[in-house]
Fold each of these.
Amino acid sequence: MNSLVLVIIAAISFGTGVMVTHWKHNSDALSEERMQAQVDKAARAAAASVADQTAEAIGGIRIESRTIYQQGRTEVVRVPVYADCLVPAAGSQLLNEARGFGDGGPVADSALPANATHSDPERRADPDG
């Protein structure tokens, strides 16, 4: 008889344990569903807020028709000329050689004179005086 009572108590304990496990599992699942429902509700509220703001902004758009006349603008850009550029005789010789006018080569109007101390012919220093 004692063993029968122990078997009955064990069966009741086992059944109670299984039921408590199912209740716990169902409770956890219900908590997850409620949490997900709150997240979904917040997402829908944010989307609705953005949609309302977008609709309000679109309603405030003003459409205008304008004719655009294209106009050209001309700008003349000049390279600066430095009037006070002094080239010593050795420098003018190097420039002429680099241009191909030195050492008995062809003499052209663009060659610098060998005795040039100033780039402006009117302001060149007279080497004799």
Amino acid sequence: MMEEARQLVAKVEEVERRVYSLNYRIKEYEHKIAKVQNRIPFVEGDREVEIFHRLLDGNSMRAIGKQMRLSSTTIFRVRNKILSQMMKEPRSYFFLITYVQQSGQIVEERKTYISI
């Protein structure tokens, strides 16, 4: 009976360890995603924005090239341009928050980033 209890406790501890480990990884991913999302406003150009969103959707450079009728080399160059735009530090920027109301209730919040 005692041995079964020990095994049960060991299993519960292992499950707790795995859940903690999984939560830690999820928090790491959320932190990385937040960093990328904070840099989205720095991407300039219609083509760059479109390619960036397709990359975020998980499309390969070759697939994006086929969809947009561009070579994969061009997509690679644009991706590098996007990365350099995202890594640049702006002199300063701020964002304007506007609220959309319906019947006195706020139904939507819009953020507009402005770089100076």
Amino acid sequence: MTETGATMTAYVHGEPVEIPATIAGIRETLAEDRVEEFDREVAHTPALQLAQVLIRWALPQEAKDEQEELFAALERGDFSRFGDAPGTEAA
């Protein structure tokens, strides 16, 4: 995936997707006009929040879109996509 090699697995629509697992790997995948913003955010992120920030930057847009869809469903009161939610059958 990247020249740095280290990856981790994220899931998009239930399918595994390899994403970069290093700062350098994430930088490699970014559009040139986003690198400065990424560097600035990483440089000013408290250590305990760094993993969350890196994963957010590493996730593909499809994963972010899926998260937005899930949050929108929750806001509508639709819990049918959430396992053992009331009114759903357990998987």
